[in-house]
Amino acid sequence: MTFSWIERLEGVSRAEWDSVLFASERPSPFLSRQFLVPWVGAFAAGRPVRIGRWESGGRARGLVFLYRRADSGGWELMGGEDVADSLDAAVVKGAEGEFWDAFLRSSRELLAEGPLFLPNLVTGAPSLAILPRLCDALGYALTVEEMDRSPFVPIPVSYESYLESLGKKNRHELRRKVRRAGDALPGLAFRVVATREELSRDFPSFVDLHRKSHAGKRDFMDGRMEGFFREAAEAFLDAGWLRLAFLSSGTRDVAAAFQLAWRGALMLYNSGYDPEKREASPGVVLVARCIEDAIRLGMREYDFLRGRERYKYDLGGRDRIVSKAIVRLP
Predict the structure, then answer these.
(1) CATH for 2-150+321-328, among 3.30.70.20, 2.170.190.11, 3.40.630.30, 3.40.50.720?
(2) Each residue of 126-135: pLDDT tens digit?
(3) For labeling, which of 143, 210, 255, 287 is most exposed (least CB within 10 Å)?
(4) If we measure between CA atoms, which residue out of 259, 270, 232 comes closest to residue 37?
């Protein structure tokens, strides 16, 4: 068993990266090549990166992707706090303890430069169970704190069953919003991008609706972020994971949802709507249509990802806790 450091993403082969990720306990699209390659290009260009590679039996069985924080305050998982939603190391299922033991024993020099930040560890992330024991045994300081919630909806066998699961008040409210949207938005239609040509045509509409939604989203979706989203969308589409959905009225899009179909879950990564149509609740109606789409696709859950927005709970969201772990030298 050996642990080594690689200093550029290109040093990890496509086959090795995918084989480790998809053999892990909790594979995340935010640890995929399709996400991290454009993320590094947009947000970590010129910064030092380190990929920890753990090998056993002649093949890679664990990878952890790190970059140097801009404030020179240590190292952090690639993807960071603000853009990724669920992170961790990628380790073959069952080998997580050996991986983190090898990582910690090989990281004193790295941690001498500053703390290691592990954000966006969602309930069930293997590192949350393993690091407390290992850090204590090997003499590292570890803090773990809650940073957010990540609501999700278990998917039943039918849309009617889903509505029944909401409870009387929320079920009535959702049906009312759907009826009102149908009355207020003539020619209401739902579509999902399926080809590169459609993505090229429709991506600007997603960006426009995202920026219109409110000031925070406008500030978030600057030129650099737009470039990242476009590159990631293209990579996700080529991999068969992107479900960029729109709700339109006639020829005008009124809501958009950037989603990922990932191993039995439909994930809502980002969204936007036309505030001029706020009274018709196009954003909520679109998400309801997306949940209906997830049922049709046979998904096991609809994952709202990070954020405690009220509509997620009105639509049946149940919480997962999102934590941040920080590892330091004593």
Answers:
(1) 3.40.630.30
(2) 999 999 999 9
(3) 143
(4) 232
